[in-house]
Prior knowledge:
Elements: H1 2-6, H2 9-30, E1 33-41, E2 43-45, H3 48-51, E3 55-61, E4 64-72, H4 73-76, E5 85-89, E6 98-100, E7 102-104, E8 109-115, E9 118-138, E10 145-147, E11 151-153, E12 156-162, H5 163-166, E13 171-177, E14 185-189, E15 192-194, E16 205-206, E17 211-215, E18 217-227, E19 237-244, E20 248-253, H6 255-258, E21 264-266, E22 278-283, E23 293-296, E24 300-309, E25 311-317, E26 323-325, E27 331-335, E28 341-347, H7 349-352, H8 357-360, E29 363-365, E30 372-376, E31 387-388, E32 395-401
Parallel strand pairs: 2-5, 9-13, 18-21, 26-29
Antiparallel strand pairs: 1-4, 3-9, 4-8, 5-7, 6-9, 9-12, 10-18, 11-17, 12-16, 13-15, 14-17, 18-20, 19-24, 20-23, 22-24, 25-28, 27-32, 28-31, 30-32
Amino acid sequence: MIKKITNRLSWKIISVVAAFFLWLLVVNYDDPIIPKSYDLEVVKINASAITTQNKAIEYLEGETVSVSIRGKKKIVDRLTKDDIRAYVDLSKVSITGAIDIEIDVPDGIQIVQKRPTDMKIALEDIISVQKEVQYYFDGEPSESYVALEPAITPSIIQITGPESQVNLVTSVVVPINIKGVNKDVTLFATPQAMDKENNVVTTIVANVDRVQVAVPILRKKTLPIIFEQIDNVAPGYRLTEVKINVNDVTVMGKDEILSGVESIIINNINLEGQTEDLTVQVSLEELLAPNITIMSGEKIVTITLSIDKLEEKVISIEPNDISVINVQPDYTAAIINTTPIVLTFRGTKADLDKISIVSLNPSISLSGLGAGVSDLKLNLTLVPNTEMITAPTLIKVNLVKED
Length: 403
C-alpha cells in the first residue's frame, strides 16, 4: 500500500499545487482582490475625559486620515465612507499628546495603510475673565441731534476659553445702530470679543448672549449770547462798550425744552455805581434752564465792560452857518438873528470829538411859509450816544416875496 501511495508522489504534489493555483486564478478572475482609498474625518470620543479637567483641546494634526484598504471586488464595490469608521479615544492621550487613530472596517476588508497613524493634540487651561462692555456707534443721528453715552446692562460680562485665546481679547464691544434717529434708542446687541487688530475672537464664549443698550438722543442747537444789562452806572458815567469773548455756544436738551429757547441773555452783572472799566466772568450754565447742557464752546465767558466819564462840549453856531432850505420860488429869506446860538452837548470824550458844525449840519426849513417874519426850529443832526443839554433858541427869519 505504501508503495502505491508513494509511487509518483512528486507528480501528485505538483498536480495538487497546480490545481490550487488554477482554482485561485479562476476565483480571482471572477471576484478579484482590489484596493481602494478613503479620506475620512476622524471621530473624537471621550473628550469629556479632558474637558472635565478644565482643559481645552487644540487639535494639531490628524483630524482627517487617508485610509487604504483591500478586499474582494464584490465587497469593496458595495463599500461607502459610512462603512469605514476612523476614531480616536481622547481618554488614551499619551504624555506626548499623541493618540492612535483606530479604523473599523467590515469583515473581509483588510487595512493596508493609514496616514497619519495618530492624532496629535495640545492641552491648555481654560480660564475666565471679566471685561467691561464697550460700544461704538454705527451711523449718525438725524441732523441737529446728538447721541449721549449709552447705558449698557450688564456693563461687565465674563468670557471663558483657552488661556491663549482669552489673552488675545483686548476689548468686548457692541455695535449700536443710531443712523437717522431723533429719539431715545433702546435695543439688544450681541457683545463681540475683539483682538488688538479688531478681529473677532470666535474661540471664547460669554456668560450672556445679549446686553441691553439704552441711548439718550438729544436735540442740539446753537444759541447766540446777548448782553441785556441795565445801564445803572454811577451818575455822570456811561457804559459805552461791551465785549464778550464768545459769540455763541451749542447746547443740547430735549425737544420740548429747547423749542422755546433762542438765545442766552446775560443780565446778571451788577453795575450800580460803577465808575471804571470792568472785566467779569459769567457762567452760561447758570443762565440756562434745567436739563439744558452746553455741548461745545465756552461754559464760562469773559465780558469786558467799558465805562467812560461823561463830559460836556460847547458849540457856537453863527447865523451864516445855518442853511435855509425849502424856500418857495420868488421868495427871499433872511435870518434876522445876529448873535451865535450856543449849544451844550454831553457825552463821552470819544463821542464829543465827533461833534462839529459840519456834523451838526444846522438848517431851517421854510416849507409852506408865506411872506413875513417867522420863528423857526433849528434842525440838527446829532451824534449818536450824545445828548443836547440846552435847547437851541428859535431862529427868526424874514421871508420876502420878490416883485
